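Entry 14: structure prediction run for Homoserine O-acetyltransferase. Input pasted below.
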Amino acid sequence: MPRMSIQTFTCSDTFTLESGKRIENLRIAYHTYGSLNERKDNVVWVCHALTGNSDVFEWWPGLFGSTDFFNPKDYFIICANSIGSPYGTTYPLSINPATGQPYYLAFPSFSIRDVAAAHRLLAAHLGIEKIALAIGGSLGGQQVLEWAIMDSSRIDRLVLVATNAIHSPWGIAFNESQRLAISADRTFYANKPNGGAKGLKAARSMALLSYRGYDTYGATQLETSNEKTDGFRASSYQNYQGEKLVKRFNAYSYWFLSKAMDGHNIGRGRADIRDVLRQIKAKTLVIGINSDLLFPITEQKFLTNHIPDAVYAEINSFYGHDGFLIETERITEEISRFLSHNKATQNQLAYQQVS
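Run finished. Output tokens:
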């Protein structure tokens, strides 16, 4: 039986954020699947998106699973819950050691770079010196990109799906609109675990519009009757999805994670973004979704053009940004092709060196 368990690691040292603020006793929740092989070259590290969690078999089936491409028979798969996310890692409803009460809005702001630094901390704790492949989509892709820059010698291969080097004004505008909805709910400032719940529901409704698109809604939520004047399918869908998120998430986590996404910029404190991308040593596959409104393919092509020898694959999808979670068959094909080509190239180089 493959090992599928949620575990936690608590950092004994103070965790210093990019801002200089600190988190005491940082707790990181993570899932592992499979085991490390004798060569220690089968580690696959996954980073989740905005409202995801560390159980990648739950939210990326078809790509990760007991019978999927990334399976626990062949790989040692690790996925850690992000700082700020409410699935076991320190987050805004955790107890603030300084007050003995939950942080709520006093939680220290963090960046994508901080999240990547926490992944590095966990990898060191697990004794993982080499990562065969690191993969993430959306905000998860931002994390693995940062990690590949911060720790270029640890990651051999990189798969970036529907992500970018710097979050766009368009993406920031979407996030700010969602936060305006959250802050319009006066309970957000009440310091209660369910504070801002109505605002979060509205925020999720807004987010869905950026995750899908006009054609998707036209096909999946189209009315079959010409007589309806209220109670539309699209309205019910928005309400249902908003309520569904409220049941499993919280407004404070959403607030801070969306802020972290807004601040994603690999050039900050370093150099020109193009020059920073050129520093990446990992063999890289970049995957774009042609109907993605939130992370358009121009952003993935930019990554490909400036990461040395990066390979670009474009997926034709009906589902917009959500295609990175849905089009797993096509993503599997592209990753398989990428790894096969990479292995063939390595074998050829090894043959030339021996000759």
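Notes: Residues 30 and 247 are 21 Å apart (CA to CA). Will compare against the previous run tomorrow.
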